[in-house]
Amino acid sequence: MKNTRILLWISIVVVIVGVIIAIRYANSGGVQKSASQAPVLGTAKIGAPAPTFQAATNHGFFDLTKADKPVFLEVFATWCPHCQRQTAVIDNLYAKYKNRVDFVAVTGSSVGMDHQSPASEEDTLTFVQTFHVQYPVAFDGSLGVAKEYLQGGYPTMVVINGKKVVTYLTSGETPYTELAAALNAAL
Amino acid sequence: MGAMTLIVRVLVGALFIFAGVAKVGHFNDLAAAIAGFRILPEPVVGPLAVLLPFFEIGLGLYLAAGLFTRTAATIAAVQLTVYAAAIASAVIRHIPANCGCFGPQDQVPADWPHVVVDLALAAVCVLVARRAPGLFALDTRLRSAP
């Protein structure tokens, strides 16, 4: 009975010490700030009219209301490894579809590439250079596009057809074939 | 019946240990998975992501060894019910959250089958708690110790 009591107290102390260590470790940068933030959840839905947006990209100004082609929109975070890997896929799509589809990628996180500092224009350009991004990219400090389109995870990719209706919406790393099929369906 | 409790106890314990070990060292992925459910405030997410893997491993060890079996099984049942409730809440709110149950490789979206599995496991833990400690449990040894 005495041994049981000792073990019980040891267990309780270990849990309490564990909680304290976890709090200290997490707050000292052990867990990245970006990871603890739930991404905003957009209102866009497949089959619904696409919320209008504008973006000042590194290729020029984009305005959805003035787009006369289907649109491929990506909402991403510079710190997100899935988004970093997805750049190669979107670059391939861009190479094939850029004459028939408007591409635009917009930042959707308030946290920068180092997972700690605030997102910025400079941070976005660093992302473009680091991952050799060919398609138009814009920094959106207000997260206005993310609030409309982000679907709970980075990257969120959206296809908007010529009638300005959302025809495809997905989040997470997505293969070329699936995205190409979504674009073909919108053309 | 003691043998059955032992088998179930060890299997559920092993499941908890496996789930915990798969998460150790992937605190950021786990934090992102927890944050994705949009239930807990941001300051809680980080510490929970650090603590949870070790808590699951510890709980699994207690269950497998049959130490404080009734309490460990009850805590496991509560934990699994909380998981089920969190997943159900995400599904109902149409939030595309990742389960993250078995570490960063587990990118399966949280869905109703997950809720059913978690509730079934919780029910199993309740049974273990009721029939605790079962064969070869440390609880029995400690009780019989002088």
What does this molecule look like?
The complex is a heterodimer of chains A (187) and B (146). Chain A has 6 helices and 7 strands; from the N terminus they run H-H-E-E-E-H-E-H-E-H-E-E-H. By secondary structure, chain A is an alpha/beta fold. Chain B has 146 residues and is mainly alpha-helical. Chain B has one domain. In chain B, 73% of the residues lie in helices and 0% in strands. Chain B has helices spanning 2-23, 27-36, 42-65, 69-92, 112-131, 138-144. The radius of gyration of chain B is 16 Å and the shape is elongated. At the A-B interface, helix 1 of A face helix 2, helix 3 and helix 6 of B.
List the helices and strands and how they pair.
The complex is a heterodimer of chains A (187) and B (146).
Chain A: H1 2-30, H2 33-36, E1 54-57, E2 60-63, E3 71-76, H3 81-97, E4 102-107, H4 121-130, E5 137-138, H5 144-149, E6 156-160, E7 166-171, H6 176-186
Chain B: H1 2-23, H2 27-36, H3 42-65, H4 69-92, H5 112-131, H6 138-144
Helix pairs in contact in B: 1-3, 1-5, 2-3, 3-4, 4-5
